[in-house]
Design goal:
InterPro entries: Ribosomal_mS45 (IPR021036). The chain is mainly alpha-helical. It is about 40% helix and about 5% strand. The chain has helices at about 1-5, 35-45, 60-65, 80-85, 110-125, 130-135, 140-160, 165-175, 220-225, 235, 240-250, 255-285; strands spanning about 110, 175-180, 290, 295-300.
Length: about 350
Amino acid sequence: MWRWLNGPGKVFRKALPGSTNYMNAYDKQGNLLRTRNAGREAGSRRNKPEEETLEEDEETAARRDLENPDLTDEEPRDEESDARGGIPKERRSDMRPYPLNDQFSSQAVLSEELREELYTQVAVYKHDISSVAASFSVDIRRVAAVVRLKTIEKQWVAEGKRLAKPYSEAVLAMLPTTPFRPNTANPVTPHEPINDIEVHAHTRPQIFWPASESRQFTREDAAKVFDSKLLPADKRIPLPMLVDLERWKLEGLDRQERTKKQIEADDKARREEDEKVRKRTEWQARTQRVVQGRRWDFKFQDISAEKVGKDGRGKDAVGYRYGMPHEDRKRGMLKIPTSVE
C-alpha cells in the first residue's frame, strides 16, 4: 500500500485544477491517459509518411495549414484548457469514479458562478423563472431550488453565520461542473434537458382505442382517450413557450413580433396564476380552520363521508388519494373494444 501511495497513488493527493481526478483517468503507473493519448495522436499526425496521405485540393490544404499550430505564427488559445493548466477536457471514460462499474458516470453540477447568476436573474432582475431556465438550459425546478438556497445563504451571511466555503470549494473541485463565462463568445453551457415530460398517472393503463383512418389522430385526441381533462403532451411540458417560439418562427414571424407575442403570453399566464392563487386563498379561508401551535399550524376541514359519487369512487370521497390498482392487465378483463361508436 505504501509503495502505491508513494508511486502511482501520489497523483490523488491533490485534485487537478479545474478537472476531475478519478481513478479511471489514469493507468497503473499513474499517468493521465488523455494527455498521453493526445500527445500520441499529435505525434502520429506529424510522423505520418507522405505516401500514406491522400490527395488534397488546394482549399483543403490551405485550411489544414492554417489550423496547424506548427505552421502558424500565433499559438491557438484555448481558455478552457488554460483554466485546467493545459490539461485536455475529460472524456466520458474519465467520468467514471468506480473502476468496476462502467455503467455509472458522474454528472455535472452547477458551478458557483452559474448559481450566483441564476439567483441574480430571478431575485435581483425579477425575471421569470421559466425564462431563466430556458435561457441557461437548467431545469425549472433546479432554478427554483438554487434561488431558495441562495436566499438562505445570503440571509446567513447578513446574520454573521459562518459558511462551509472550504468544503464547498473542495467538493466542486472534484466534480465536473457546468461553467458560466460571461465575457466569452459562448457564456452559457447547456446543463441538462429542460423540456422532458413526466409519465402522467392517467397514461399508465393499457388502452386499445379504435381510430378512424379518415382523420388525423393528434396528441389532444390521445390525451382525451386517457382522461377527459388531461392536457396534451405539448401543453404538459415544463416550458411550452419553447414550442410556441419555434412554431412562430416557422410561420415566418420576425424576432420583434415573436418577442411581443411572448411578452403578451407571459403577462396572461402571470395574471391567470395570480387569479388562481387568490381563489385558492379565499377557498382555504372559507373552508379551513387553522389552529396555531408552538411549532406547527394544524388545518382542519369538514369532510362528508356521503360524497362518494355514483360509483363509490368520487374525488371528494374520504380515502380517494389512496387510489385503486388498474384492472387493465387483470386476468379475465375484456381489453379489446367490441364496438366502434
